[in-house]
Amino acid sequence: MRTILEVQKQLLPDLMDVMKKRYTILRQIMISEVIGRRTLANAMDMTERVLRAETDLLKSQGLIEIETVGMRISQAGEELLEMLEPVAKELFGLSEMEEQIRRTYGLRKVIVVPGDSENSEYAKRELGRAGAKALLSVMNDEDVVAVTGGSTTAAIAEHLTPSSSKRDVWFVPARGGLGESLELQANTIASMMAKKLGAQYRLLHVPDLLSNHAYDSLIQDSNIQEILDMIRKARIVIHGIGGAMEMAKRRKLAPQTVTEIRDEGAVAESFGYYFNNEGEVVHTMLTLGMRLEDIRHTELVIAIAGGKSKAASIQAVLRFGQEDILVIDEAAAAEIVKDL
After folding, report:
1. Average pLDDT, the chain
2. Pairwise CA distance, residues 148 & 184, whole Å
3. Dist. CA 307–CA 332, nearest whole Å
4. Residues 105-155: tens digit of each pLDDT
5. What is the pTM of this model?
6. Per 3-state DSSP, what percentage of the chain is helix, strand, and coil (rounded to 5)?
7. What is the CA radius of gyration of the chain?
8. Which of 39, 72, 149, 189 has the fewest CB atoms within 10 Å distance of its CB?
Protein backbone atom coordinates (compact mmCIF):
# COMPACT_ATOMS: atom_id res chain seq x y z
CA MET A 1 0.00 0.00 0.00
CA ARG A 2 1.34 3.43 -0.93
CA THR A 3 2.08 5.85 1.89
CA ILE A 4 0.37 9.24 2.18
CA LEU A 5 3.77 10.86 1.56
CA GLU A 6 4.16 8.99 -1.74
CA VAL A 7 0.68 10.12 -2.83
CA GLN A 8 1.44 13.72 -1.84
CA LYS A 9 4.71 13.64 -3.78
CA GLN A 10 2.81 12.68 -6.93
CA LEU A 11 -0.26 14.90 -6.51
CA LEU A 12 1.34 17.89 -4.82
CA PRO A 13 5.01 18.08 -5.86
CA ASP A 14 5.07 21.85 -5.27
CA LEU A 15 3.93 21.31 -1.69
CA MET A 16 6.82 18.88 -1.16
CA ASP A 17 9.28 21.53 -2.37
CA VAL A 18 7.82 24.11 0.03
CA MET A 19 7.95 21.63 2.90
CA LYS A 20 11.61 20.79 2.14
CA LYS A 21 12.52 24.47 2.02
CA ARG A 22 10.83 25.39 5.30
CA TYR A 23 12.14 22.29 7.06
CA THR A 24 15.69 23.16 5.93
CA ILE A 25 15.35 26.79 7.09
CA LEU A 26 14.05 25.71 10.48
CA ARG A 27 16.80 23.13 10.86
CA GLN A 28 19.54 25.59 9.90
CA ILE A 29 18.27 28.03 12.53
CA MET A 30 18.25 25.29 15.17
CA ILE A 31 21.80 24.16 14.36
CA SER A 32 23.07 27.76 14.40
CA GLU A 33 21.36 28.57 17.74
CA VAL A 34 21.28 32.27 16.72
CA ILE A 35 21.71 33.47 13.14
CA GLY A 36 21.11 36.67 11.17
CA ARG A 37 18.87 36.75 8.12
CA ARG A 38 21.66 37.74 5.73
CA THR A 39 23.96 34.95 6.94
CA LEU A 40 21.19 32.40 6.59
CA ALA A 41 20.21 33.68 3.14
CA ASN A 42 23.81 33.30 1.94
CA ALA A 43 24.07 29.80 3.43
CA MET A 44 20.89 28.72 1.67
CA ASP A 45 21.67 30.53 -1.61
CA MET A 46 18.42 32.49 -1.28
CA THR A 47 17.62 36.19 -1.54
CA GLU A 48 16.91 38.04 1.70
CA ARG A 49 13.49 39.07 0.37
CA VAL A 50 12.41 35.45 -0.22
CA LEU A 51 13.88 34.32 3.09
CA ARG A 52 12.12 37.13 4.97
CA ALA A 53 8.74 35.92 3.71
CA GLU A 54 9.52 32.39 4.91
CA THR A 55 10.86 33.42 8.33
CA ASP A 56 7.93 35.77 8.89
CA LEU A 57 5.59 32.82 8.33
CA LEU A 58 7.64 30.60 10.68
CA LYS A 59 7.49 33.35 13.31
CA SER A 60 3.72 33.73 12.92
CA GLN A 61 3.40 29.99 13.57
CA GLY A 62 5.43 30.36 16.76
CA LEU A 63 8.29 28.18 15.41
CA ILE A 64 11.06 30.78 15.59
CA GLU A 65 11.80 33.94 17.55
CA ILE A 66 13.28 36.99 15.84
CA GLU A 67 15.41 39.22 18.08
CA THR A 68 17.89 42.05 17.54
CA VAL A 69 20.84 39.62 17.55
CA GLY A 70 19.20 37.27 15.06
CA MET A 71 16.75 34.40 14.76
CA ARG A 72 16.52 31.43 17.09
CA ILE A 73 14.26 28.38 17.15
CA SER A 74 11.45 28.22 19.71
CA GLN A 75 10.53 25.24 21.87
CA ALA A 76 7.59 24.57 19.54
CA GLY A 77 9.97 24.65 16.56
CA GLU A 78 12.29 22.11 18.17
CA GLU A 79 9.37 19.80 18.94
CA LEU A 80 8.10 20.08 15.36
CA LEU A 81 11.54 19.23 13.93
CA GLU A 82 11.74 16.19 16.20
CA MET A 83 8.32 15.01 14.98
CA LEU A 84 9.20 15.67 11.33
CA GLU A 85 12.58 13.91 11.33
CA PRO A 86 11.34 10.50 10.05
CA VAL A 87 9.17 12.21 7.41
CA ALA A 88 12.03 14.49 6.36
CA LYS A 89 14.41 11.56 5.94
CA GLU A 90 11.97 9.95 3.53
CA LEU A 91 11.31 13.29 1.83
CA PHE A 92 15.01 13.85 1.17
CA GLY A 93 15.58 10.20 0.23
CA LEU A 94 17.85 9.59 3.23
CA SER A 95 15.92 6.66 4.72
CA GLU A 96 16.46 4.54 1.63
CA MET A 97 20.20 5.25 1.62
CA GLU A 98 20.43 4.42 5.33
CA GLU A 99 18.78 1.04 4.81
CA GLN A 100 20.85 0.16 1.74
CA ILE A 101 24.14 0.86 3.54
CA ARG A 102 22.98 -0.85 6.75
CA ARG A 103 22.01 -4.05 4.93
CA THR A 104 25.12 -4.15 2.75
CA TYR A 105 27.57 -3.89 5.65
CA GLY A 106 25.51 -5.59 8.35
CA LEU A 107 25.41 -2.56 10.62
CA ARG A 108 23.14 -2.07 13.60
CA LYS A 109 22.21 1.46 12.55
CA VAL A 110 23.07 4.03 9.87
CA ILE A 111 22.27 7.72 10.27
CA VAL A 112 22.49 10.00 7.23
CA VAL A 113 22.19 13.77 7.71
CA PRO A 114 21.36 16.23 4.90
CA GLY A 115 24.11 18.11 3.06
CA ASP A 116 27.85 17.93 2.46
CA SER A 117 29.98 18.61 5.54
CA GLU A 118 33.06 19.32 3.40
CA ASN A 119 31.37 22.38 1.91
CA SER A 120 28.87 23.40 4.58
CA GLU A 121 29.55 24.31 8.18
CA TYR A 122 25.85 23.69 8.90
CA ALA A 123 26.08 20.12 7.60
CA LYS A 124 29.15 19.54 9.76
CA ARG A 125 27.28 20.77 12.83
CA GLU A 126 24.35 18.51 11.94
CA LEU A 127 26.78 15.59 11.66
CA GLY A 128 28.02 16.37 15.19
CA ARG A 129 24.47 16.71 16.52
CA ALA A 130 23.49 13.32 15.05
CA GLY A 131 26.65 11.74 16.46
CA ALA A 132 25.91 13.12 19.93
CA LYS A 133 22.36 11.80 19.77
CA ALA A 134 23.60 8.36 18.68
CA LEU A 135 26.11 8.23 21.53
CA LEU A 136 23.58 9.22 24.18
CA SER A 137 21.14 6.60 22.90
CA VAL A 138 23.55 3.74 23.68
CA MET A 139 25.44 5.02 26.72
CA ASN A 140 24.87 3.27 30.05
CA ASP A 141 25.94 4.04 33.61
CA GLU A 142 29.54 3.03 34.41
CA ASP A 143 30.49 2.89 30.72
CA VAL A 144 34.01 3.64 29.53
CA VAL A 145 33.94 5.54 26.22
CA ALA A 146 37.12 5.78 24.11
CA VAL A 147 37.37 8.67 21.64
CA THR A 148 39.73 9.39 18.75
CA GLY A 149 40.74 12.88 17.68
CA GLY A 150 39.59 14.85 14.64
CA SER A 151 37.12 17.52 13.59
CA THR A 152 34.10 15.21 13.35
CA THR A 153 34.50 13.76 16.85
CA ALA A 154 35.08 17.32 18.10
CA ALA A 155 31.71 18.24 16.53
CA ILE A 156 30.05 15.50 18.62
CA ALA A 157 31.52 17.00 21.80
CA GLU A 158 30.13 20.44 20.91
CA HIS A 159 26.58 19.05 20.71
CA LEU A 160 26.48 17.10 23.96
CA THR A 161 24.29 18.73 26.59
CA PRO A 162 24.86 18.70 30.38
CA SER A 163 23.33 15.82 32.32
CA SER A 164 23.80 14.95 35.97
CA SER A 165 23.03 11.29 35.27
CA LYS A 166 26.42 10.54 33.69
CA ARG A 167 28.67 10.86 36.73
CA ASP A 168 29.66 7.20 36.56
CA VAL A 169 30.71 7.33 32.89
CA TRP A 170 34.40 7.68 32.00
CA PHE A 171 35.76 9.22 28.80
CA VAL A 172 39.27 8.34 27.65
CA PRO A 173 41.34 9.02 24.52
CA ALA A 174 41.64 5.98 22.25
CA ARG A 175 45.32 6.83 21.65
CA GLY A 176 48.03 9.41 22.22
CA GLY A 177 47.99 12.99 20.99
CA LEU A 178 48.30 13.78 17.29
CA GLY A 179 50.66 16.56 16.25
CA GLU A 180 47.91 19.00 15.28
CA SER A 181 45.83 21.77 16.85
CA LEU A 182 45.05 21.10 20.50
CA GLU A 183 41.25 21.28 20.13
CA LEU A 184 41.27 18.32 17.71
CA GLN A 185 43.37 15.99 19.87
CA ALA A 186 41.76 12.95 21.49
CA ASN A 187 42.68 14.10 25.01
CA THR A 188 40.93 17.45 24.51
CA ILE A 189 37.81 15.89 22.99
CA ALA A 190 37.53 13.22 25.72
CA SER A 191 37.77 15.87 28.46
CA MET A 192 35.25 18.14 26.67
CA MET A 193 32.72 15.31 26.33
CA ALA A 194 33.10 14.44 30.00
CA LYS A 195 32.66 18.04 31.12
CA LYS A 196 29.58 18.53 28.94
CA LEU A 197 27.93 15.45 30.50
CA GLY A 198 29.17 15.90 34.05
CA ALA A 199 31.11 12.65 33.61
CA GLN A 200 34.73 11.77 34.45
CA TYR A 201 37.82 11.40 32.29
CA ARG A 202 41.40 10.17 32.17
CA LEU A 203 44.06 11.43 29.74
CA LEU A 204 46.95 9.74 27.96
CA HIS A 205 49.90 12.14 27.90
CA VAL A 206 52.06 10.51 25.25
CA PRO A 207 52.84 11.39 21.60
CA ASP A 208 50.76 9.74 18.91
CA LEU A 209 53.78 8.27 17.11
CA LEU A 210 56.66 6.69 19.03
CA SER A 211 60.11 5.32 18.34
CA ASN A 212 60.79 1.74 19.44
CA HIS A 213 62.89 2.99 22.33
CA ALA A 214 60.20 5.44 23.53
CA TYR A 215 57.49 2.79 23.22
CA ASP A 216 59.47 0.21 25.23
CA SER A 217 60.14 2.80 27.92
CA LEU A 218 56.57 4.14 28.23
CA ILE A 219 54.89 0.73 28.19
CA GLN A 220 56.75 -0.12 31.42
CA ASP A 221 55.39 2.93 33.28
CA SER A 222 52.73 1.88 35.82
CA ASN A 223 50.64 5.05 35.34
CA ILE A 224 50.63 4.61 31.55
CA GLN A 225 49.76 0.93 31.95
CA GLU A 226 46.81 1.82 34.21
CA ILE A 227 45.24 4.21 31.70
CA LEU A 228 45.93 1.76 28.83
CA ASP A 229 44.06 -0.96 30.70
CA MET A 230 41.10 1.39 31.06
CA ILE A 231 41.18 2.38 27.37
CA ARG A 232 41.32 -1.22 26.22
CA LYS A 233 38.29 -2.15 28.31
CA ALA A 234 36.08 0.56 26.79
CA ARG A 235 32.55 -0.62 25.95
CA ILE A 236 32.04 2.14 23.38
CA VAL A 237 34.50 3.55 20.85
CA ILE A 238 33.78 6.69 18.81
CA HIS A 239 36.10 7.35 15.90
CA GLY A 240 36.46 9.38 12.74
CA ILE A 241 37.63 8.12 9.34
CA GLY A 242 40.29 9.86 7.28
CA GLY A 243 41.83 9.47 3.85
CA ALA A 244 45.14 7.61 4.06
CA MET A 245 47.28 10.24 2.32
CA GLU A 246 45.55 13.12 4.11
CA MET A 247 46.26 11.55 7.52
CA ALA A 248 49.86 10.68 6.59
CA LYS A 249 50.45 14.36 5.81
CA ARG A 250 48.72 15.52 9.00
CA ARG A 251 50.99 13.23 10.99
CA LYS A 252 54.00 14.67 9.17
CA LEU A 253 55.27 11.20 8.35
CA ALA A 254 58.63 10.78 6.63
CA PRO A 255 58.42 10.82 2.81
CA GLN A 256 59.63 7.21 2.69
CA THR A 257 56.79 6.12 5.03
CA VAL A 258 54.21 8.04 2.96
CA THR A 259 55.47 6.27 -0.18
CA GLU A 260 55.22 2.89 1.58
CA ILE A 261 51.62 3.61 2.65
CA ARG A 262 50.68 4.62 -0.90
CA ASP A 263 52.41 1.58 -2.43
CA GLU A 264 50.57 -0.69 0.02
CA GLY A 265 47.28 0.53 -1.45
CA ALA A 266 46.03 2.33 1.67
CA VAL A 267 42.90 4.44 1.12
CA ALA A 268 41.71 4.99 4.71
CA GLU A 269 43.03 5.61 8.22
CA SER A 270 41.33 5.00 11.52
CA PHE A 271 42.54 4.08 15.04
CA GLY A 272 46.11 4.61 13.73
CA TYR A 273 45.73 1.78 11.20
CA TYR A 274 45.79 2.14 7.41
CA PHE A 275 43.27 0.13 5.35
CA ASN A 276 43.13 -0.81 1.67
CA ASN A 277 39.97 -0.94 -0.45
CA GLU A 278 39.16 -4.45 0.80
CA GLY A 279 39.24 -3.34 4.45
CA GLU A 280 42.55 -5.08 5.16
CA VAL A 281 45.12 -3.46 7.45
CA VAL A 282 48.16 -2.75 5.28
CA HIS A 283 50.15 -0.44 7.55
CA THR A 284 50.39 0.03 11.31
CA MET A 285 52.01 2.90 13.21
CA LEU A 286 53.74 2.29 16.53
CA THR A 287 51.47 4.02 19.02
CA LEU A 288 50.05 3.56 22.50
CA GLY A 289 46.31 3.09 22.85
CA MET A 290 43.68 0.81 21.37
CA ARG A 291 44.88 -2.17 19.35
CA LEU A 292 43.01 -4.10 16.66
CA GLU A 293 42.22 -6.91 19.09
CA ASP A 294 40.67 -4.37 21.49
CA ILE A 295 38.50 -2.91 18.72
CA ARG A 296 37.33 -6.40 17.72
CA HIS A 297 36.19 -7.04 21.30
CA THR A 298 34.54 -3.63 21.82
CA GLU A 299 30.78 -3.95 22.25
CA LEU A 300 29.83 -0.78 20.34
CA VAL A 301 31.89 0.96 17.67
CA ILE A 302 30.51 4.26 16.36
CA ALA A 303 32.06 5.76 13.22
CA ILE A 304 31.41 9.32 12.10
CA ALA A 305 32.60 10.90 8.84
CA GLY A 306 31.35 13.14 6.07
CA GLY A 307 32.05 14.54 2.64
CA LYS A 308 31.93 13.13 -0.87
CA SER A 309 35.71 12.62 -0.93
CA LYS A 310 35.53 10.37 2.15
CA ALA A 311 33.23 7.77 0.55
CA ALA A 312 36.01 5.33 -0.48
CA SER A 313 37.68 5.65 2.94
CA ILE A 314 34.40 5.01 4.75
CA GLN A 315 33.74 1.91 2.65
CA ALA A 316 37.22 0.54 3.33
CA VAL A 317 36.69 0.82 7.09
CA LEU A 318 33.19 -0.69 6.80
CA ARG A 319 34.69 -3.68 4.99
CA PHE A 320 37.01 -4.12 7.98
CA GLY A 321 33.74 -5.13 9.59
CA GLN A 322 33.88 -3.86 13.17
CA GLU A 323 31.41 -0.95 12.97
CA ASP A 324 28.02 -1.03 14.67
CA ILE A 325 26.70 2.51 14.14
CA LEU A 326 27.63 4.76 11.21
CA VAL A 327 26.91 8.50 11.13
CA ILE A 328 27.58 10.14 7.74
CA ASP A 329 26.31 12.97 5.59
CA GLU A 330 24.23 12.85 2.43
CA ALA A 331 27.20 13.55 0.12
CA ALA A 332 29.18 10.56 1.41
CA ALA A 333 26.09 8.31 1.50
CA ALA A 334 25.18 9.09 -2.11
CA GLU A 335 28.68 8.12 -3.29
CA ILE A 336 28.61 4.89 -1.26
CA VAL A 337 25.18 3.92 -2.61
CA LYS A 338 26.45 4.42 -6.19
CA ASP A 339 28.97 1.63 -5.60
CA LEU A 340 26.53 -0.82 -4.04
Report:
1. 87
2. 9
3. 5
4. 999 999 999 989 998 888 899 999 999 999 999 999 899 999 998 889 999
5. 0.86
6. 55, 15, 30
7. 21
8. 39
